[in-house]
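Can't attach files on this board, so I'm pasting raw text. These are the components:
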Amino acid sequence: MELYLERGFGQTTVAQIAERAGVTERTFFRYFTDKREMLFDGSERLQQLMVDAVAGSPADATPLDSIGTALDAVGSVFVDLTRSRTRQVIIDSDESLQERELIKRDRLATAITGALRDRGVEEPVASLAAQTGIGVFHVAFASWIAPGNTLGYAEIARNLLAELRIVTNGS
Amino acid sequence: MELYLERGFGQTTVAQIAERAGVTERTFFRYFTDKREMLFDGSERLQQLMVDAVAGSPADATPLDSIGTALDAVGSVFVDLTRSRTRQVIIDSDESLQERELIKRDRLATAITGALRDRGVEEPVASLAAQTGIGVFHVAFASWIAPGNTLGYAEIARNLLAELRIVTNGS
DNA sequence: GTCTATAGTACGATAGAC
DNA sequence: GTCTATCGTACTATAGAC
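---
Top answer:
Structure tokens for the assembled complex are below.
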């Protein structure tokens, strides 16, 4: 991340990263499938937290309630605001990094769809709820790291989920 | 697309594509920024249709109503079911193509957010509605090309939007 | 650890259309 | 004469094969 900030992602070569880390290029590619992947280390953990939350939500919870527990469950991940902001600056600077971020988000949605289905939620409701939930998650994260924001992630996510219910309750 | 089906996307070189098209590699890269982009030709048109629909929706329409008009507006694009299915088989076979598809979808969401904001919809409602709308769009498209489906895209999209209102109207 | 294919870039030349 | 389209070549870095 130091190098990506210094020279830009596209201008940073794997050779430079490997050198600063004191390893060879080959070793770099042993740890990360490609240059982008290193910025998305925590994604499996995030996914696991959300899936577990859905699986563990009350039996009488609606699909959207389950989504709510998933949004709550990842609060512990989003604490270091400065680091999240820095990381996002890098991602926003490069289109291929945005692509990678989006596929992570999509895998998340797919995993949540599966967790809902495991609870007996039928299609297309499972997909619909998961997609919507990830949408809320994304907006919540973006709001959290937005300049000037003082609220915590968890609070924002809860507010947005409530807002969603209002928005979709229109005439 | 012929070559991508014959040999697989990853196994197809730009040289082969250029040869079959009767041009040089250099010319290929004049038309497409990269190997993936050629599969996403219609995306600007799709985006324009949706943005125009939102902009042209009735003044008293709720954000979600505007989304509804956008979902309707693209019905004319999704007619050739066989071609859409073939294209999706290719995309689903390669992760980098899925990434590209997702960034197109994300740009769509961003554009719709802007169109809603232009109508006076404030944040975070604009983002929330746009994200949700794109989620519905995606599920609708997937349902449309799913094996065995006999419904048209427009009908599916309408049903799903109605379904969404129910899902988010929970206890 | 070594080797290599290929995507993608940079810069430049040429030539036809109107 | 200007604009636009194709082609030529050399090069780098990624990423995969072995």
